Amino acid sequence: MSAKTQHNNILLAIVGFAAVVIIVALIGFFALGHDPELIQGQVEVSEYRVSSKVPGRILEIRVKEGDFVKVGDTLAILDAPEVRAKMEQARSAENAAAAQEEMARNGARQEQIQGAYQLYQQAKAGLEIAEKSYQRVQRLYEGGVFSAQKRDEAYANYKAMEAQAKAAESQYRMAKNGARIEDKKAAAALVGRAKGAVDEVNSYINETVQLAQMEGEVTDIYPKMGELVGTGSPIMNVAVMKDLWGTFNVREDQLNGLEIGKTFTAFVPAFNKNIKMKVYYMKDQGSYAVWKATKANGQYDLKTFEVKARPVEPFEGLRPGMSLIIK
Questions:
Q1: How far, in Å, CA of 174 to CA of 160, rounded?
Q2: Minimum mean pLDDT range among 152-161, 232-241, 312-321
Q3: Which of 171, 290, 294, 312 is most buried by its number of CB atoms within 10 A?
Q4: pLDDT, tens digit, for every residue of 275-300?
Q5: pTM for the whole thing?
Q6: How far is residue 105's CA from residue 17's CA, in Å, rounded to a whole number?
Q7: Maximal C-alpha separation, the chain
Q8: Beta bridge partners of 79
Q9: Distance between CA atoms of 78 and 225, rounded to whole angstroms?
């Protein structure tokens, strides 16, 4: 083979290789370069945590994971003997306060009122005798029979009996009218405080029966039967299936058309269907880890935003964790 032939073969090989590279590059450009960039998110759901204000032992769990519950359904029952003991104490204090208020309202017993009345009548009788004696001594003093000393003694006795009669009358009226208005108000306040304590313990007793506050699906149950739970310890989670939304992490150069109040179409791979969604929340992630650096190319950094959107219409079967795709 001549040198010229070899040279031509090498040139043909180079040209062929270059042609293959160009063809592959064109195929890649047209086949892949124009595919839309995908943004993947997932379905989220609102949840509320069921917990108790009082510590206790799990006596009964009425539901299972996956059960759908309605408002007012019983979820769990706790045993809290300490709360029952506090209720007995609160009720005893309430009864004592009520008896004290009744005593203040009714006043003294009938026997005490009758005794005070008799003392008052006795003092009145003594006052009448002392007054008549003083008048007689005064007339005799004016006639020159008694001395001034005798007249003064009779007058002093008359005034003493008058004061004694007034004191007896005051004691009788006090026994008859009962306690002062201040004492009655104080007794009523004690009753109110005792009732407040009973209401407080009642609220704790109500906490031993956990009820569903919103309808939804039980997703997690933490304690087992017979286990102790502390104040505020989670017992179970309930997902509010009516409140589903999608969350996406979107780079800011892809936010075109994703604005609060705007609608877009997302693809649900689980059902191979599209769903209309409306943006209601948008916030930057605020972390350097989600930036896309472009300064190496002399440009700028791109931040990532969290975008949340709700389905425009109910989508049957949509569940938390399912993927959502935006093109």
A1: 21
A2: 152-161
A3: 171
A4: 999 999 999 886 654 545 555 555 56
A5: 0.58
A6: 113
A7: 186
A8: 57
A9: 10
